[in-house]
Design brief:
Layout: H1 4-19, H2 21-38, H3 41-72, H4 74-100, H5 115-121, H6 124-136, H7 141-157, H8 163-185, H9 187-225
Helix pairs in contact: 1-7, 1-8, 2-3, 2-6, 2-8, 3-6, 3-7, 3-8, 4-7, 4-9, 5-6, 7-8, 8-9
């Protein structure tokens, strides 16, 4: 179970990233817009899969580069191996506060669609992959907290340069594929799915944020303050 825990955590963080308010809205808008242009239901699903792959691969690439860079520098790698729990405590607290909405990150506000996004949206299935890749870089506060405060410390602490980022990427893609399928075979279903995901996200994000804060406080008390709990 201990070996499965990091993978399940990365998958959960990826799913939460995909259904957090800003990414969920952009995911539905992008898949809907591309879907109207590609036509047939099967191609709508393929566009959703392509969009998901583009988004997931971007997350994987960014996480892999950051984790590899951190672990490849001997001094940084040694510091993280010896002080990881001391670093992780404050990071988890900050990430949890962001997820709970108690701490704002004004520099992470997401981005609107520009000329490049419009051209990619009109380029069919290949364009959908590029659109997903660009939208993945438009971090919002909650998705930034999950990615930078959740996945990166988890992958770095586990010395996982690729596997955990890849599992996280899969998690970000699963809800989008489901939404694309609903869009292709039942337009009415996507509205109900959006409402259900929104309700689920509110609860899941707050519970996860609370767990982050509690875990961070525990690590601070035990590895920085030096209390025995």
């Amino acid at each position: 179970m201990e070996r499965l825990a990091p993978g399940l955590t990365a998958l959960w963080l990826g799913i939460l990233t995909s259904i957090s308010p800003c990414p969920l809205a952009s995911n539905i808008a992008a898949v809907s817009y591309v879907g109207r242009r590609v036509g047939a239901p099967r191609r709508v699903v393929l566009a959703g899969v392509a969009y998901s792959l583009g988004r997931a691969l971007t997350y994987v690439l960014v996480a892999t580069v950051v984790v590899t860079s951190l672990l490849s520098v001997p001094s940084v790698s040694f510091f993280l191996q010896s002080r990881m729990n001391q670093v992780l405590g404050p990071v988890l607290i900050l990430a949890g506060l962001v997820m709970l909405g108690w701490l704002r990150l004004p520099w992470f506000q997401g981005g609107g669609a520009g000329a490049l996004e419009q051209r990619l949206a009109g380029a069919g299935i290949p364009g959908a992959a590029g659109l997903g890749a660009i939208f993945a870089l438009s971090f919002c506060p909650v998705s930034a907290g999950l990615f930078f405060g959740g996945l990166l410390p988890l992958a770095t602490g586990s010395s996982s340069r690729f596997i955990l980022p890849a599992i996280y990427g899969v998690g970000t893609g699963l809800p989008v594929v489901v939404l694309a399928t609903l869009l292709a075979f039942g337009a009415g279903g996507i509205g109900r799915a959006f409402a259900a995901l929104t309700r689920f996200e509110r609860v899941a994000t707050r519970v996860t944020g609370g767990v982050f804060v509690l875990a961070g406080i525990y690590l601070v008390l035990t590895h920085i303050v030096g209390l025995s709990i």
